[in-house]
Design brief:
The complex is a heterodimer of chains A (440) and B (175).
Chain A lengths: L11 E2 L25 E4 L4 E2 L5 H17 L3 E3 L18 H6 L4 E10 L2 E10 L4 E2 L4 E6 L3 H17 L8 E8 L6 E8 L6 E2 L7 E6 L5 E6 L6 E6 L4 E4 L7 E7 L5 E8 L2 E8 L5 E3 L7 E6 L5 E6 L6 E6 L2 E6 L6 E7 L5 E8 L2 E8 L6 E2 L6 E6 L5 E7 L7 E7 L5 E4 L4 E7 L5
Parallel strand pairs in A: 2-4, 2-5, 3-5
Antiparallel strand pairs in A: 1-8, 5-6, 6-7, 6-8, 9-10, 9-32, 10-11, 12-13, 13-14, 14-15, 16-17, 17-18, 18-19, 20-21, 21-22, 22-23, 24-25, 25-26, 26-27, 28-29, 29-30, 30-31
Helix pairs in contact in A: 1-3
Chain B lengths: L5 H11 L39 H9 L1 E3 L9 H16 L3 E8 L6 H21 L7 E7 L10 H7 L1 E8 L4
Parallel strand pairs in B: 2-3
Antiparallel strand pairs in B: 1-4, 2-4
Helix pairs in contact in B: 3-4
Classes of the chains: A mainly beta (440), B alpha+beta (175).
Chain lengths: 440, 175
């Protein structure tokens, strides 16, 4: 299976003579809310060290540039503007030529191909001070894993300049959709975060909903109507084997998510018309009831240390967001704005909760602090829902559905400043994305 | 034990010869006036068609297989209760049938909330049918949330029809 091909990530520092890299360049951009000036950078095509590497030399640079450009934090200077010729990884960099076109960061690299193996080297420069930004690194992998190598380079560049973890070497599991609204076919799909390398994990014989990655990215929880009733399944991505989780006759279960340990699932059970939240130990199948009210309680999501759960309840009369202990008990309401709130998701950094908000006939993706303060709406459309966080907590992917008889779903992403909104290209329609952790 | 009207018994016997009696919702039958049980002779009744009062088609079209709900509500309307009175009576008479009650929501609302709302609606119908004497063992519920709209426009005319609970018959003479 192609998407499985384990990428033997061999990372080692290049023995650079200029190992005075303890000298940290001053190049740093801090990601904050409000307007920031994107940092201009250049990524010339890598040097092809072997004849077979010619194609990859350009492709790697393009993927790295697209990753960085897509963050909104960086702005690529097109190679048509270049003054300097780049064709030798080990030649001294002519900083004035890069300064002249206003590049502040420069990424150079070299690639060699031998049979199935690819070796990629790169360096990051602070053009303004004319210094290396960190050490040069090299990665080894296989030819079919070349995009992952590009993403790893981009993650390194992003981390060195922003001081934060990257998110490019990650995957997204989602529901691929075809057909009209009244005959929609759905199947689980998995892809790279940028929409490349799509493969399908189920067929579309039964409705499937809301896949959720495990914390280590090896398994996916999802809801399927395979039995005729909504039930929760766990699918092993490596073997594509699935099994249904225990559930009592006459009940429906849905809205599952893993705990940070990956051993527990929190989810909803509907029984006798009432929907409450339960947690279940995956190994033993033992479940514990966490809420017990006549209201709808659903869409639970753990905080990063697994001690608390944010969820949605209409106990006040309209759906609102609440936080309770992971063992249940008293919950405190955190959403107090106008409108209806749903699908809260705790950010991997722990600082924010992303949610869906429905107000005055529009849907929004928004974020608020975990005490409910500083609510900010990032999007607005006929129907936006179901946020999922990038591994570094800086970007949110979600479902956008268009209006009317031809209405269709697609995946979008938005950064947490709300400035950078873009559609994620998928071969078919898409909904219910779930972002993996960074790959190892 | 309830005694069936003679005409229904005869129809049931006629149906038993049919291999797949409850499979055919004959749309053409919609254009002919429904044939209320017991008021007309058996001549001309096609077993399994909408004028066979023991058929699924008759249940769906004449009794009415669905009730509609107001926005974000799962309370039965007066019209809904009247339809369910008919469903309960029919189910008590045609005791071979099981039913699955499907709860649905319109597209306004998140996927998870709508699943829970559909479950409330399906359960409201189940509770009502139970209160009219239909045995619990014959009724199951499922929610489809907003996954299975029948109308696809994005305005109230369509939403009103999508906010529904549909009693889908299963079993019958072949079960």
């Amino acid at each position: 299976m192609k998407f499985l091909s384990i990428f033997a990530a061999l990372i080692c520092a290049l023995g650079l003579a200029t190992a005075v890299s303890a000298q940290q360049g001053p190049l740093r951009i801090t990601i904050e809310e409000g307007i920031i000036q994107p940092l201009p950078f250049a990524v010339p095509d890598f040097q092809a060290e072997t004849g077979e590497a010619g194609q990859l030399a350009g492709d790697l640079a393009r993927v790295i540039a697209a990753d960085l450009q897509g963050t909104g934090v960086f702005r690529e200077i097109p190679n048509s503007a270049y003054i300097a010729q780049y064709d030798d990884f080990n030649a001294p960099v002519s900083f004035p030529d890069w300064k002249a076109i206003n590049a502040q960061a420069l990424v150079t690299g070299a690639v060699s191909v031998s049979g199935n193996n690819v070796n990629v080297k790169f360096r990051v420069y602070d053009v303004v001070s004319g210094t290396n930004l960190g050490e040069g690194l090299q990665f080894s992998g296989t030819t079919d894993g070349w995009r992952r190598m590009a993403h790893k380079v981009a993650d390194e560049v992003y981390s060195r300049i922003t001081g934060e973890g990257g998110y490019f070497d990650s995957r997204v599991v989602y529901v691929s959709e075809t057909g009209p609204k009244d005959d929609r076919k759905k199947r689980l799909a998995i892809m790279d975060y940028d929409g490349a390398n799509v493969s399908y994990l189920t067929d579309s014989n039964a409705i499937v909903l809301a896949p959720r990655f495990s914390p280590s990215g090896d398994r996916v929880l999802y809801t399927s109507y395979e039995s005729g009733f909504p039930r929760i399944y766990v699918l092993d991505i490596g073997s594509v084997q699935q099994r249904v989780l225990e559930s009592a006759e006459g009940t429906m279960s849905f809205a599952p998510r893993f705990s940070p340990s990956g051993n527990t699932v929190v989810f909803s059970i509907s029984q006798g018309g009432n929907t409450d939240i339960y947690s279940m130990d995956i190994g033993s199948g033992q479940s514990v009831r966490l809420t017990n009210t006549p209201a709808i309680e659903t869409a639970p999501s753990y905080n990063p240390d697994g001690s608390q759960i944010v969820f949605e309840s209409d106990r006040s009369g309209t759906p609102q967001l609440y936080i309770m202990s992971a063992s249940g008990g008293e919950a405190r309401r955190i959403s107090f704005g106008e409108g209806r709130y749903g699908t809260p998701v705790w950010s991997p950094r722990g600082d924010l909760v992303a949610f869906t908000k429905q107000h005055a006939g529009r849907f929004h993706i928004g974020v608020m602090r975990t005490d409910g303060s500083e609510e900010r709406l990032l999007t607005a459309s006929f129907l936006d829902e179901g946020p999922t966080w990038s591994p570094n907590g800086r970007v949110i992917m979600f479902t956008r559905e268009t209006q009317g008889e031809g209405g269709a779903s697609s995946l979008y992403s938005v950064d947490i400043t709300g400035r950078v909104l873009r559609q994620v290209n998928t071969p078919e329609g898409g909904s219910d994305p779930s972002w993996s952790p960074l790959q190892q | 034990m309830k005694f069936l009207p003679m005409s229904l018994l005869v129809a049931a016997v006629a149906l038993s010869a049919c291999t797949n009696p409850n499979r055919f919702g004959n749309d053409d039958a919609l254009s002919t006036p429904a044939n209320p049980a017991g008021t007309a002779g058996l001549n001309g009744i096609v077993p399994g068609s909408a004028n066979d009062p023991t058929s699924t088609a008759y249940f769906n079209q004449t009794v009415g297989d669905r009730v509609l709900f107001l926005i974000d509500q799962s309370t039965l309307t007066a019209e809904g209760r009247s339809t369910l009175d008919g469903q309960a009576g029919w189910l008590m008479t045609n005791s071979d049938y099981q039913a699955i009650i499907e709860g649905h929501a319109d597209e306004q609302g998140t996927r998870e909330y709508n699943l829970a709302l559909g479950a409330r609606r399906a359960n409201a119908v189940r509770e009502y049918l139970l209160s009219k004497g239909v045995p619990a063992s014959r009724l199951r519920v499922v929610s489809y949330g907003k996954e299975r709209p029948i109308e696809i426009c994005s305005n109230e005319a369509c939403y009103a029809k999508n906010r529904r609970a549909v009693t889908v018959l299963a079993g019958g003479q072949t079960s």
